[in-house]
């Protein structure tokens, strides 16, 4: 199967690489399931200072990403990968969730996503004209698109076949069926500082255990965010 490819466009590749080169995401790349490339937006900057930002028309605080470096960077990637689609982490995008992660993962083979990581106060709105998927990570504002890019890549990649160990670990966890949260889990020791593992889990009765887990899931999901 062809790997799922992400090309990140960022001024700070050093903020992305250590995470992507660790643990399961490292393994996904080593196994040829997923691939990441880094494009430094600075390489497409303007003038001697390789400038990528400027002040907003109409006044206001801070600097905005300019169109020219962003368009040039995306066009340079699309020159060899014309079907690549552009993802923009932005607070005004659609809120990212497990359903979307599952949709991206299920059509992943051979796909190529360019994730543009804005920085500074924001970006020139005309950049939206070359964006296929604007996504928000939630109702808060971050300093840049790097953390959202990591979250998008992580939440999609872990759902790809061959990335997680157990066949079912992605299937039965929190959020894997709509809004249901996973039941509580325990490992050894059976008692720790006076806290005992629920008796039922030590019973060996798989039917009763499954029932308990379903109940616990429902309870947690009902009380979520209360
Ligand atoms: N960039 C800044 N804040 C963000 C958010 N909440 N989601 C996605 N991208 C962002």
Ions, cofactors, ligands: which are bound? adenine
Main sheet: strands, sense, barrel: 5 strands, parallel
- Described by the principal axes of the CA atoms, the overall outline is elongated
The percent range for helix content is 25-40%
Approximate strand percentage? 15-25%
**Rg calculated over all Cα atoms:** 22 Å
Strand order of the largest sheet: 2-1-6-5-8
Strand tally? 10
Number of helical segments with 4 or more residues: 6
Structural class: alpha/beta
Summarize the structure in words.
- It contains 6 helices and 10 strands.
- Helix 4 (98-106) crosses helix 5 (146-157).
- Strands 2-1-6-5-8 form a 5-stranded parallel β-sheet, sandwiched between helices. It has a 3-stranded mixed β-sheet with strand order 3-4-7. Strands 9-10 form a two-stranded antiparallel sheet.
- With 226 residues, the protein is an alpha/beta fold.
- The chain starts with a strand and ends with a helix.
- 30% of the residues lie in helices and 19% in strands.
């Amino acid at each position: 199967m062809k790997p799922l490819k992400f090309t990140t466009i960022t001024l700070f590749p050093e903020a992305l690489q250590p995470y992507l080169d660790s643990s399961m995401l490292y393994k996904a790349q080593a196994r040829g399931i997923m691939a990441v490339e880094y494009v430094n937006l600075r390489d497409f900057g303007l003038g001697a200072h390789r400038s990528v930002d400027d002040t907003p028309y109409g006044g206001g605080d801070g600097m905005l990403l300019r169109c020219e470096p962003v368009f040039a960077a995306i066009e340079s990637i699309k020159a060899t990968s014309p079907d690549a689609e552009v993802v923009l982490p932005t607070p005004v995008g659609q809120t990212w969730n497990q359903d979307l992660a599952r949709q991206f993962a299920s059509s992943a083979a051979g796909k190529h996503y360019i994730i543009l990581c804005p920085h500074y106060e924001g970006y020139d709105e005309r950049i939206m004209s070359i964006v296929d998927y604007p996504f928000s990570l939630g109702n808060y504002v971050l300093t840049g698109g790097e953390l959202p890019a990591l979250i998008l890549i992580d939440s999609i990649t872990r759902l790809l076949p061959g990335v997680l160990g157990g066949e079912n670990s992605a299937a039965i966890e929190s959020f894997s069926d709509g809004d249901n949260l996973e039941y509580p889990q325990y490992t050894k020791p059976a008692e720790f500082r006076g806290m005992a593992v629920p008796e039922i889990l030590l019973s060996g009765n798989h039917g009763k255990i499954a029932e308990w887990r379903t109940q616990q899931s429902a309870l947690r999901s009902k009380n979520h965010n209360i």
